[in-house]
User: Fold these one by one.
Assistant:
Number 1:
Amino acid sequence: MERIAARTGLPRAQSKAQRAERTAHRTRQIARVIERVMNAVFVLCGLVSIAAVALITGYIIWAGLPAIREIGLTEFLFGRVWASTAAEPKFGILPFILTSVWGTLGAVVIGVPIGLLTAVFLARVAPKGLHRLVAPAVDLLSGIPSVVYGLIGMMVLSPTLMRLFSLKSGSCMLAAVLVLAIMILPTIISVSETALRAVPPEYEEASLALGATKMETVFKVTIPAARSGIAAGIVLGVGRAIGEAMAVMMVAGNVANMPGLFKSVRFLTTAVASEMSYAGGLQRQALFSIALVLYIFIMAINLVLNTMLKKEADA
Amino acid sequence: MNPKKLTSLFLAGVLTLSLAACGGASSNNDSAASANDGAADAAQAESMSGKVTLGGSTSVEKVIGALSESFMQEYPDVDVTYDPTGSGAGITGAQEGTLDIGLSSRALKDDETGLTATTFALDGIAIVVNPENAVSDLSLEQIKGLADGTITNWSEVGGADAPVVLIGREAGSGTRDGFESIVGVKDACEYESELTSTGAVIAAVASNPNAFGYASLSAVDETVKPVTVEGVAASEATVQDGSYKIQRPFVFVTKEGAALSEAAQAFMDYATNAQVNELIQGAGAVPVA
């Protein structure tokens, strides 16, 4: 180009300006290409998670239905006996469903009051120094791997329960409930604390101005105002509790009994996890069906959560 | 050290290893195929190709897995497949010719005729209790009672006045199947805990003074106390001479009179050779001798 410019005798300045413009043009072009490429990358990344969800949903339905069809839906969901490798196998998962429901409920009953009060403490009561101590502890609690919870439950909690209630074995539903209650604490605390902090200060100021004490204000104004956020935290905790397998497997005993506080019980998650390694044939298919039931549970919980969050956003 | 030197060192190591592997392979073959000279044998191993279809007992999975893996390393063109369907299906498969070799974790019954059984390993299952437990010997009958819930207190078998807690493995586990079928409590056990690994069973028994459980012989450690069964302590020797009762054979079942394919015969020779004893031990079973 330069050579052409020189030969045609164009003034130097003009060719400089041309060059500058050309470079600018090229830069813009490159920028546009990068823009487009990055756009595609982002779309692709977004699609990965959608594809994963779709794939998992599709597979779990595809893998879970045959056994249900073979066993019969009522037989499967309401059968009280699970004997998957017996000469005449029985595949009733009612004990697992009830155990999961009761176990989660128990964890919520223990975990929610502690979690909510901790959240109140962190959001409204705690002096700065204590807050700096408690908040990281709560964060750490959520970072502890579930197998560690299980290990401590197995080595410390179970023997303690055994001595305390003079049981013949400490591996029971109560141990699982206690472990789950601790495991859902961080979720409940952090979501509730955020919700409590989001309550407009005017509400509390009004309450205090009317002569209410600080505690009256917290319990009669702040918590009701933050209730949908707190409820979201609880539902998230429920989701975590119902989906937990490892820690539960190590403390619950895993026998397919109907639920009982001091009985050895098996949850939906542990039913899948404990038999998967050697399962074959219908037994294996039935395990996929259990996973399907668990999946439906989790999806229902998520649906509830989403509706709640939407309501909160609308409000 | 500079990267070049590292690379050459690494290459040297690989060379040495592969040489060693070649040596090992040919010497293994020597004994496997009895007479031939090493070189011819190695060539045979290289050239042999085909498929060996195994199927049957789920309990032998670990042993067969270890055996077929090392076999296929030596005979790279032979493909060994194993379908865990249960001893009964393995025996039927051998009878009907759908399997090259059927696998069974029990001896053949009298009415299962026209078949040859070759024991390739033994499965010894130790009965373990908490070290605090005073009971040190149990009869098969007592073990049966403890497992199926007819004996619920340790005082009934000479121990302290404490409840019996059976800790076992999950449904489908080979050890569970072995214990239940040998003691005669198939699907009748009153479990207090069903755990998914031998290690977990041992840990649970070690932490509960009322507990008793079962575990592969090779997994027992000093945190638990293995009891003697009818006066015989569980050990590799007592399993091999048959005096320890809670054991069962792992058996290759083949059709009488029918010739095996070259690859299947090679696999059987390989698996019944004394040189694979270590592999069998590594998989938690007891070699035949």
Note: Residues 123-240 of chain B form a domain with the D-Maltodextrin-Binding Protein; domain 2 fold (CATH 3.40.190.10).
Number 2:
Amino acid sequence: MYTKMLQVKEKTIAARRSQIKTIIFPEANRRDFDELAENVKEGLNVHFVDDYGKIFELAFGYDKQED
Amino acid sequence: MREGAVPEEPAVASDPEEAEIVADVGESIENHTVEENTVSSAEEPKEEAQTEKIAIETVMIDESNLADYVGKPVFHAEKLYEQTPVGVVMGLAWTSMGGSTLYIETTVVEEGEGKGGLNITGQLGDVMKESAQIAHTVARKIMLEKEPENQFFANSKLHLHVPAGATPKDGPSAGCTMITSLLSLATKKPVRKDLAMTGEVTLTGRILPIGGVSNSGLLSLYSIRASLFFSFFDNVHKNVTGERENYSGEAESD
């Protein structure tokens, strides 16, 4: 459990450092992310997925959302 | 000769002006330090205040001269692409230095009937190589569902690379990033801007959590550290209680 939270935390911080706005995590890591400090979580658009189909929509479905 | 003398006069005259300006600056700094002294001398001894007077120098540090004071940046910006092109997707990695972003790049080597295949480079470990093979299969399956007439994966020899080439990498959590990279190439469409992802993918496209039992090495390290701590604590406890017994014994004999 400890490494799960540590990995989610470190990866989130790394994404922030690279000015990432949208992060996709596995659904099973949702509770690890929820336990992070607010200043790490804020301003990020985080999605939790359990099937690749959802990633496909998030990664390539940006035209539909903009229309 | 007279013409030559004209420019000399203001030059001579400007010297004291400059000197005055310098003196002004000196005074203003001194005034500043005196003010600082009055504040600091109330709290600290005068000797320290005097050394402070010499040391104080107003410095403006901003982005342009920051490197002069703290040295050149140790870690460089990890952002290789401002907008990732077709076939490139950002993943999130976990290293001994903490989290890090990485790119998965794929490109077409050659196209032709039945030439479908995948090359892998980037110092990848066994798990990550298998992960790439799985990604290739899953991406092909998804493409078959979305566009059944698209023969991209069947007829394209692909190359997948994970920069930087000198850094050894391993682990399954780049799986979903690899699939997305391959599908980006197949659909010839770049992914959403400022997107990063992480997660292991099974052959059927299910996403597994990150940071599971794979880091058993780290876990055992923590357990060793914990046992060391407790044995140390136990020793300290014995020593403290032992000393107390001795002390109380002496006290009784007196």
Note: The domain at 88-215 of chain B is CATH 3.30.230.10 (Ribosomal Protein S5; domain 2).
Number 3:
Amino acid sequence: MENAWLIALIPAIGFALIISFGKKMPFKGAEVGLASMAASLVVATGAGIQWIQRTDSASSHGGEEAVGGLFTGVRGALRAAEGAEAAPYIEPVVTQWVWWQNSGLEFGLGSHIDGLSVLLLWLVAFISLLVQIFSLDYVRGDRRYTHFFAALTLFSSGMLVMVMSSNMVQLILGWEIMGLCSFMLIGHWWEDAYNSHSALKAFFTVRVGDVGLLIGTAILYFGANDFAVNTLDSNGFDIRAIGAWALSGEGSSWTLLMASICLFIACIGKSGQFPLHTWLPDAMAGPTPVSSLLHSSTMVVAGVFLVARIYPVFWEGFNIANGGLSFIAVIGGITIVIAAVLAFVQDDIKKVLAYSTVSQLGYMMLGLGTGAWLPAVFHVFTHAFFKCCLFLCAGSISHSGSHHSFDMKKDMGGLRKKMPITFYAWCASTLALTGVIPFAGFWSKDEIIDNVGANGYSVLFWVGLGGAALTAMYMTRATYLTFFGEPRGAAAGIHHDDGGHDEYAIDFREEIVHAEDIDRELVMAGPAPQSLGAAAHVPGDTLEHDAEGDPAHGGHDGHGDGHDDHGDHGPHESGKLITIPIVILAFLALTAGFANPTPLAGDSLGANLGEGVELIKTYVEPRYEPVKIDQAAGHAGESVQLIESGTLLAAEDSSDEPGDSKAKCGRGTPEPGTVCYFPNVKHAVPELGKILLSLAVVAIGYMLAIGFCLSYYGKKNPKLVGLTERSKIARGGYLFLKNKYYLDILYQRVFVFFVSRPLAKATYWFNQNVIDGAVDGVGASGKATGNWIYKYIDQGLVDGAVNASGKAASETGHGLQPVQSGKVNQYGALLFGAATVGAIVLVILNVS
Amino acid sequence: MLIPLLAQAADTPTLDGSVNIAINIGFGIIATVMIFAAFSVVTTKNVVHAALYLVLVLAGVAAQYILAGAEFVAVSQVMVYIGAIMVLFLFGIMLTRAQIGAEDGLNNNGWQFGIPVAVVLMGLLGYAIVDTFEDDVIGERAPFPTVGLSDQYLDEYLVPFLAVSFVLLAAAIGSIVLARKD
Amino acid sequence: MLAVNFLLLAAVLFCIGVFGVIARRNAVLVLMSIELILAAVNLNFVAFAMMNENIDGLVFALFVMAIAAAEVGVGLAMVLMIYRNRKSIALDELSEMKG
């Protein structure tokens, strides 16, 4: 576990290798990608095993011993549970190098291994590996095959970096790498304007949320830094320190609330909650492996991971302990419903799955927001399997069944006979998704709903149940349209005119679906609005095409004759490389639920196997015990001694009930000298009644949906067909849903337009008139001053003085000129006159 | 009426208290003539008459010299001034074709300006003289001896005497140079 | 007799001579007026000699006479030359000044 950083490093190296050498390799880089993911999976598995051993040894020893030795996992946990002793807090293993230092603040890069990280590390590595195997066949012959694998590998690396991060900075690093890869992968066929626009939309929408991430991190840093430095010898970015600070009661509730809201805004963006969910359906423009890896199992779960990781902050910030309605729960609840409703009106199978993902993410957030930490995390685990399987099935269908189209209404139908493996895998995953016992979804989703109810949120409890019913209904519709009924379009072997390809190179603006377009859609035939699937057309055969550099349009050249893998030009089952990952995932969708089957632990179903069957709970959920500080100041790389907190506290308050000391974390201030790392979340005890209730709801949903599908799509019941034509209410509702609640219109037309037009225009006006006007004004005034000075001062004053002096001299000369007349008489007169005057003066002077 | 005036004028006393009437009368007459003649010099319209009036003035000056006891100077005056200079003047008049008879335009344009100048000067000089020499009496005496004059010339004022001779030489040569025709 | 007599007489002659210099247009007449001035000055010298019983006055008077003669000679020579060149000895016509 000390070397867990390898898990993220290996894919990163793989990425570098693929980028540098991929094109020259025999498999064009795919082998490097597969190898790196496999190696990463091995290391992750090793880390997982070590963590389990560590937990076991700590639980069974219950004493101050260094971790060591091997213990059998389950038995050890059972023994600890029966002992009813306080389960001590298992210190996570932290390995960290200083990445960057700045005035005493150190940013570290490293790994932080505890139950949650181990679970997700293994999950990401596993799913990535399966998706890469799937892509070997799916994107074969693509023009950017190498870059595709490179981006997939980089994405895996980024997510692994994020999952194992021990401080917020590294978490943000991983977060951003994932955002970048998402952008690259969604826009993989960026020659189509729609694809590049979708990529941009995804990136920008998530970016809007990322503002919250940065602000939240800053708030947490400034809040937690003092506490972290003084008591825990770390800094305000350290996730464990933040958690301890949040639970210590030293943070003001206002700070925690602000930080929670900001961080949750980031989660809204990344995990596609309302109102920033609009990017997820459009992200389906990317290739199916991308959708299955990023946008169903792993990347969108990053938001859930963030909440789960820094759960103490949210716990304290939103005051979940006291059962208040938290922001997270509300958003989660809203998301569940609106996404589920939207999934009803989609024609594109991938979009149905996308909205389903959004809805399931809503479940996870609902769980986290109401204090059901463990069920939410478990749901992440199981959801990854069955959702990824569903997407891979959709990919398989389009690859081999509907001729690269994803339009259910146009190109699918009756495929269950032609593609049996895909059909059974799909069914298994659907049953898991809707929560039918004993599939995986039942154990995780119903636990969420159960805990929601048990923690006192009755409205949200019914919302969760309603969501489950809706899930059943829309999945039934999708299943029916895809696999049942008469084959349509490509499923029937009819190729579409490839001239339609030009339609997709449109100027992408949010197209409002108008009423006149609806009527054509409701019945299957007829030109439907552009299907995303055909835009994802991949040139078929590597034997005939150069995989790189083919423009999208040129790839159609070999259309008629190049599809050698379509043996009979009709739908058929996909190759092994596609079906094997699907089968593996379907199997896991069936069985993964048994990793934490809470109802089996207790009495409700009569199994009574004890808490030991709750593996996830045992190994993943952090313990909520207070930890002594000098022990808690963890040293990098060393294993920290574990304490038995029961002895510590029992000595102090012996009069209290034994359960009280456990309640300290998250429900009160911890003792001085200790810190808490995780709050004491409640776990609902499942009852048989609730289990039956949820199963009944799901069953009702199924029956309603099957009935509707059969009558509407199958028999074309005249009462139902054309309903929106006849009924204004139905039409209005349909339009509202088709236009995705006009949210996209709002964002695009109002927000973006407002910024790009009036704001930009105002800024431009300001720039031209005010700023340039000021500059021009200064220039003009300078010029005018110069002119004035020239005219009045230089010409007038200075030259005037010079001229005047000259004139004075000349006038004086002129004036004196008559004196020099040349007339002797005059000279004589002057002479004698002057003499006379002089004499008078003399006389006067001498006389007086 | 004139007689009493003259008598009164003649009654100017001498140094020893006696009154010498004859000199005073003589002086008065000659002075009157001189002034009248001088006045005519500057106002007459006839150039030749002006020359002749000048002769009269110079003669009167010579007479005054004798009354003053400077006999040698008086004779020199007659010989040099009247004898040479006036002849020279008359030659000049002739050679410059002065009109015989009265002619207009002998006064220039600004001749009025001369009157105040002369009058003021006269007043000034008169005032100065009267103020200084009031009632100074010049005694009777013998005329100055010519020997004494020559004594002064050849003894004390020898250098100026020779200088004057040079001046005369230069003047003569100069006049010749200036006036010759070539 | 009174000393003032001679001096006053001389002064009168002097002033008349000044008037003549200013007023007369003919160059010869101007020279004549200058002679009047000189004669007046001579009379002054002699009067002073008489008043002061000093013969130096007479000496100077003779000097004046000599210089006057020289001056008249040269002056008239000049007048003759001017007459020859300009055909006129009216002093205000002789000016070549432009202003």
Note: The two ends of chain C are 52 Å apart (CA to CA).
Number 4:
Amino acid sequence: MAETALLPARWPALPAQFPARPYRVAASESRHAVALVAPAVGLMLVLLFGPTAAALVISCTDWEFGAAAVRFVGLANFRALAADPVFWKALGNTLTYVVVVVPACVAGGLVLALLIESRQRFRAFYRTAHFLPVMSTLVAMAVVWQTLLHPTIGLLNQVLHVIGLDGRNWLREEGTALFALALIGIWQNLGYATVLFMAGLKSIPRDLYHAADIDGADSALDRLRTVTLPLLGPVTMFVLVMMAVRAFQLFETVHVLTKGGPNKASEVLLHLIYVESFEFLRTGRGAALTVIYLAIVVGITMLQTRLVERRVHYA
Amino acid sequence: MSAHRQPWFNAVGLARHCVLIGTSAIMVLPFVWMVSLSLKPPHEIFSSAWRLWPSTFYAVENYRAALSAVPLVRYLANGVFVCTAIFVLQILINLPCAYALAKLRFRARDTLFAAVLVGLLIPPQVLAIPLFVLFYAVGIVDTYAALILPWTISVFGIFLMRQFFRTIPDELIHAARLDGLSEFAIVWRVMLPVARPALVAFGIFSVVAHWNDLFWPLIVVQSEQIATPPLGALHFANDEAGSNYGPLMAGTVLITLPLILVFLAAQRRFVDGITMTGMK
């Protein structure tokens, strides 16, 4: 890594007996350590683990924010959600969105990364162009997309009109709203997947290509099949999980463009959490949704850890 | 490269450019469209023939309307203040912890590191309800403190810095101790300068995340005085709902521009920073 090159070489190597320090030093080291970690530990408890535990507890109450009395209701909130078609609609929509956006970003990102990295020319320009949406303020760009997808002045419908097709009111029709959001999601995340794959490609040792050349894998396709793709396995797994977690966090475009409509056609998990918790102030129910959301995100991440470990073992 | 491969190679190179120019155009299109609309008078926006450049240049009117409709400059200043405060506090609180985890021996170190790893699994939206209730009880809802405090602890920052400090040789710290530096001084005078590459990467990650965040500000902010850029964009979109697209796009340009300019000025660092923090 480049960072190690920055370290001064002039620090003298210490005598071998030095690290075996007396007990007194270790005790003071421990005291110093406690002082150094104390602020972080305190805030971690108050702002991270405490609230997470509190969310679990609140999810088992009938609390509505502002109400005087709170009762412990066990799993009643979860049972109510299980019987609520809106919850299932939101969960289904979230999964549909994930299933559209994630494979598109992973496959598209891989292809784009291979194309961009295959030659020197304009590499930096292409990387920048594809990365621009990742950086941009999504709320503001959602407003721009609203005008691009606008039924009359929108560019999409104007283009469709020129080639003789009928446009639609993409964000206002039940059949298309979720897919319009997925289109924006792909636009925003594709560049992220691309640069992650580009980093993965750079980390493949050049020697392996020479070795493959000697073994007779001299066409570009052979090299891709025998060296590049197998070695990108762990990165692919990582990008997949990263994209999935980001897709489950879909909120901005829904809130700005559709509010979950029309007729819940684009309602998704995080937006439902926001509406239930902070618009209807059904705190207990919102917390129950939060717990479900937490379980899904943790599940995906754990799955990655599990699969990557297995890979490392037989690699 | 042998000569007989040359034509085939050129064909691939050409195909590469065709595909990548096409995808780049799609990626950049919304930005071009945004700027284009922000320069046009209403009748050209609604005209059926789309043109990139307006025939009547209407930028002054649109941008003036945008700036007088909502306090855009205020939103941007709020964004700068909140993101700076978050990043500075993140360094002050998490860097010492990361150093201790990487380089010092103390009881419960492994437990603390395990807690950091568990913390990495928790998506920030999970904290929204309890933190809102807590802040409401303390009476800091709708203040800068509410926007900043939840992010002062960053288990991700701790993790990233700790991994980085692990690559730094112990000799550096031993020498600093021999020079009579306290552990506290080592953190700020030895480790902070050494950690610059990791800090830049984390800083970019942090600023991009918090500059663009909508979920939490939407929950804790009501007054316009402390609204961040995404909230500002939302207010503006709601206020100008309907057909006033010229000023709306002008406002959108002004809100997206700062971060995009910074990105274009330091794009290599941005991509590396986001990739490095992404790869963990």
Note: The CA atoms of residues 148 and 154 of chain A lie 4 Å apart.
